[in-house]
Amino acid sequence: MARIVVFGEALVDLVGEPGGRRFRADPGGGPANVAVGLGRLGETVTLTTGLGDDAFGRLVTGHLTASGVTPEVCPTPFTPLAIVSVDEEGVPSYDFAFPWVPSTPAVPADTAVFYTGSIAAGLAEGRPAEEAMAAAPTVAYDPNIRPTLLGDPESERRRVERQVALADVVKASEEDLGWLCPGADPVEIARGWLRLGPALAVVTRGPRGCVAVTSSGQVERAAPEVEVVDTVGAGDAFMSGLLSGLLAAGLLDPVRRSDLAGGDEALLSRPLAMALASAAVTCARPGADPPTGAELKAAL
Fold first, then answer.
1. 87 pLDDT exceeds 80?
2. Domain boundaries, the chain
3. Concatenated DSSP letters of 38-87
4. CA–CA separation, 128 vs 132, rounded Å?
């Protein structure tokens, strides 16, 4: 089976109770969530990340291995933490304690897809992520902006565009695009990104679904109706479902790149449905808890 290499942070989300003084400790981190989602869907996946030799690190490692992920761990002084506040609509905001300084990850010869994004893609001016992206046969990328850890939007926009140019599949939320390019139409930003190099760019729009953009035009899909508990990890679950669907269709093989670049409704319908259903299942329960293959099948 094709190997997916994920590079990025694994951490513990300390999720505060609304109006309370207690926090729930959940394994998280955007790239780790994507890896877990892929592992639960039956994909062969390795996560290169940084963790401490502490109780939180053991919590995260157990979570990864139980979900079918092989962790490649770089030691850190302590396990990275995200302090998560969830508003009345279930939308999270984050503050971080982040000790990991990554080096360039290995891209083994049997790697089919390399995925990165979020915090790790911006560390060391993005060089570790970009060196691995340049070495991989197929690259998927999600900027997954974390403003509290980043510089000004203009410098971050230049970094993100540099990394977009190294990717084949890009996913970004309307919120992230609004931070990077205030006032611009998110779908127009995605179209502009295609000119930098990717074959497929997808804009997620929360309860309004998503828009996928290729050289053939755009494909819009509505989100399934769901009673939202919170949206923690929803975008990561979307990416897991999307990549699993594209892999199943053979569209992440470099020899099929022109097919992906010209993807239309018929070609992209199933991968987008898997992505949206995966996000919906995650939104219906607390924390970043993506579906298993059986749960996703039931949701489609």
1. no
2. 3-290
3. HHHTT-EEEEEEEEESSHHHHHHHHHHHHTTEEEEEEEESS--EEEEEE-
4. 6
Between 84 and 181, residue with greater pLDDT? 181
Q: How confident is the model at residue 94, as a pLDDT?
A: 80
Q: Residue 253: is its pLDDT beyond 70?
A: yes
Q: Packing angle between helix 153-164 and helix 127-135, nearest 10 degrees?
A: 20
Q: What was the pLDDT predicted at 83?
A: 87
Quick one: average pLDDT of 255-272? Answer: 97
| Angle 72-142-251 from CA coordinates, rounded to 5° | 85
For residue 52, give Cα distances in angstroms to 100, 149, 207. 9, 20, 36
User: Order of strands across the sheet with 23-28?
Assistant: 23-28, 11-16, 81-86, 92-97
* Gap between the Cα atoms of 217 and 212, Å rounded: 8
DSSP state of 223: P
Determine contact, residues 278/241, Cβ cutoff 8 Å. yes
Q: Which residues pair with 16 in a beta bridge?
A: 23
Distance between first and last Cα of the chain: 24
Q: What is the DSSP letter of 105?
A: P
In CATH, the number for domain 3-290 is 3.40.1190.20
Place 20 in a pLDDT band, splitting at 50, 70 and 90. Answer: low
The count of residues in the chain is 300
Burial of 191 (0-12, 13-18, 19+ CB in 10 A): middle
Helix axes 234-248, 265-283, angle to 10 degrees: 140
Cross-strand partners of 92: 86
Give me the residues paired with residue 93 across strands. Answer: 85
In sequence order, what are the beta bridge partners of 52?
Answer: 76
At residue 19, the pLDDT reads 67
pTM: predicted TM-score of the whole model, two decimal places: 0.95
CA–CA distance, 43 with 31 (Å, rounded to integer): 15
